Amino acid sequence: MIVVPGPASAELGKQIALQLSAKVLPVEFKRFPDGESYIRFDGSVEKEDVIIVQTTGPPQNENLVQLLLMADNAKDMKARNITVVVPYFAYSRQDSRFRPGEALSIKTIVTLLKTCGVSRIVSVNTHNPTVLKTLPVPVEDLSAIGLLAQYFKKQGFKNAFSLSMGKKGLATAAEASKVLEGKYDYVPTQRDRITGNVTIGKKQLPIKDKDVIIFDDIISSGGTMMKAVAWVKEQEAKRVYAACVHPLLLEGVHEKILKSGAEGVVGTDTVSSKVSVVSVAPLIVQALKK
Ligand code: R5P
User: Fold this and answer.
1) Range of the domain at 33
2) 279: number of Cβ within 10 Å
3) Which of 124, 218, 245, 257 for mutating ligand 1's site (highest number of atoms within 8 Å of CB)?
4) 163 pocket-lining for ligand 1 (C-beta < 6 Å)
5) 131 and 264 in a common domain
6) Residue-wise pLDDT tens digits, 137-166
């Protein structure tokens, strides 16, 4: 077995290889002056089971192209089979035609990966695992919510109140509360399909003077999380923390969430950021060993 840590997941890829006791294949990478990507494997993958680790957080399109180049290269270099670990799967929020005429982005990307010889795809907290299982290569979805909750528990947040973003995400809050041994509920969010604007409905929660942790899969522009934090603060919670699996955290968003009233923001290393303090390597290794 050979692990190929892609340029976007160099550290996580090495961690996974270490924990699997697998060989690491170095990847030479450069960006041409016009922005195109160059990839070269520094060694053979012939007749090997190859695991490519490459996240597709920003810059999504470049990271996706690198992933496709690596997979197709492994195929051309006669790998026995190719697994891709895509810790954050770009475009997975566009998993449906919400409005007539929209491109079904995630299907296009998975179809391309299949064409490049990929037979297995492993990801973490994809937006809608049910849809992703029906794609040309079914996407295996792992959950890092337990790892995030364990992080908070170790920091002394036993019995904290867990909140998910939206009713549909209630299972996320339930998963966290199993670890934290506190109550759980959801923030009643609603997203406008055209503007993308999020509004929060009316709901009273028993969180006065309690520590609250809001769990979401992604923090990108931070708009959803900032509104949720402010809403929880209005309900007189003691301390509020923002937790997410994929801290895409666009420019200045971390600071804005703190300003909206959160004591801290915690994320995993599915994408690297200054809040990526929880590693998903053990979760991925456990899945790959199966
Ligand atoms: C939405 O469906 C997701 O679960 C996240 O709440 C959303 O993607 C966060 O995006 P932003 O940080 O841009 O509000």
Assistant:
1) 2-143+280-289
2) 19
3) 218
4) no
5) no
6) 999 999 999 999 999 999 999 999 999 999
Q: What pLDDT was estimated at residue 59? A: 96
Q: Report CA dihedral (212, 201, 219, 93) to the nearest 10 degrees.
A: 130
CB 5 within 8 A of CB 63: no
- Report yes or no on 222 lying in a domain: yes
Q: Determine if ligand 1 sits within 6 Å of the CB of residue 219.
A: yes
Given a contact cutoff of 8 angstroms between Cβ atoms, the answer to whether 215 and 173 are in contact is: yes
Closest alpha carbon to 252 in 215, 220, 214: 220
Q: Whole-angstrom Cα distance, residue 187 to residue 125?
A: 19
- The pick from 127, 172, 216, 248 for probing ligand 1's pocket by mutation, whose C-beta has the most ligand atoms within 8 angstroms, reads 216
In this prediction the pTM is: 0.94
The CATH number for 117's domain is 3.40.50.2020
- The reply to whether ligand 1 has any atom less than 6 angstroms from the CB of 221 is yes
Cβ(87) to ligand 1 under 6 A?
no
Q: Which of ligand 1's atoms lies nearest the C-alpha of 189?
A: 6
**Residue type (1 letter), 93:** R
42 within 8 A of 79, measured Cβ to Cβ: no
As beta bridge partners, residue 122 has 85, 140
